[in-house]
Amino acid sequence: MESLLASRSIRSSFSAVASTRGAASPRPSRVATLASAGAGARSRALRAGHTDDMLNAKELVQWENGLSFNDIAARQGIRIRRHCRPTASLKEIEEELGAPLNILEKIIWDKEIEVAEGHAKKPLEEVIQAATKAPPSRDFYGALEAAYKRNGVPALIAEVKKASPSRGVLRENFNPVEIAQAYEKNGAACLSILTDEKYFQGSFDNLEKVRSSGVKCPLLCKEFVIDKWQIYNARSKGADAILLIAAVLPDLDIRKFLQICEELGMTALIEVHDEREMERVLKINGVKLIGINNRSLETFVVDTSNTKMLLEKHGDIIREKGILVISLSWVYIDPLK
Questions:
Q1: Domain 1-337 belongs to what topology?
Q2: Structural domain boundaries of the chain?
Q3: Average pLDDT over residues 85-105
Q4: Using one digit for the tens of pLDDT, what is the confidence trace for 199-250?
């Protein structure tokens, strides 16, 4: 079983390491009070200081239209290029940009086409309406905090995943509802549902099925988010949290998507893998949940010491900001042992 390990206890257990560097005692965690969806929610969130100041007009136009996207991304150390041509075929894109540099870039190029098709099938306005009419979201952040306080051990986010590019099909007889129910029964604090179809054989239908099955755990939509349409669609299918990957998204995107999550009452899990990404994300106001991925999404190589290394360097500011940290990849149990 591959899973996500999460808890305030990761902060707490690291405090012994941090204290050798003269760090102050960890501050009590702040459970996020998420604004409910509705008129004026975005402006209230901004006034309350949950997100950065409003973007200037030029930046907002660039963000909305994808203008100079790769220039913006490159300045922030993002190596994943975007083609910003959602109506183009993958062949046309490769003729212009060459072959994808790595598996993550290939996934994102395909995702741009997929999201454009989603817009065509279900316009943004329709998806927004569905999201605002969805039942209230569940407190993903709070569930992790509560599990740690209740059990005294790291909370577990168990993953409902049929396949991956690195390991192929993980389970042929795949029933997402049965798997989710088994995870919940055995103590998972939250669940992560893969929704990418092409590379992970997931779907938003799986997310919706798990949500409507009676499972009480908060649900993370694990998707390669590049467009606000995906966030609204995830909320309409029952997601309580969404994954935002710093290796893919420039700061402007992360800020904008945090605003949308705030409006919808969702939790944003910001994934980082290296020093540069961590530094970027820690400068963005409103971040409450950071996932440190031990796997490089460019090479899929796993280094289980990555979480410890980044916490050693940034633990003080993480505690100061009251951010909850999740260690992503790798918890694996050999079924033959």
A1: TIM Barrel (3.20.20)
A2: 1-337
A3: 83
A4: 999 999 999 999 999 999 999 999 999 999 999 999 999 999 999 999 999 9
Question: 104, 80 in Cβ contact below 8 A?
Answer: yes
CA distances from 285 to 38, 278, 289, 323 (A): 22, 13, 12, 11
SS (H, E, C) the chain: CCEEEECHHHHHHHHHHHHCCCCCCCCCCCCCCCCCCCCCHHHHHHHCCCCCCCCCHHHHHHHHHCCCHHHHHHHCCCCCCCCCCCCCCHHHHHHHHCCCCCHHHHHHHHHHHHHHHHHHHCCHHHHHHHHHHCCCCCCHHHHHHHHHHHHCCCEEEEEECCEECCCEECCCCCCHHHHHHHHHHCCCCEEEEECCCCCCCCCHHHHHHHHHCCCCCCEEEECCCCCHHHHHHHHHCCCCEEEEECCCCCHHHHHHHHHHHHHHCCEEEEEECCHHHHHHHHCCCCCCEEEEECECCCCCCECCCHHHHHHHHHHHHHHHCCCEEEEECCCCCCCCC
Q: Inform me whether the pLDDT recorded for 268 exceeds 90.
A: yes
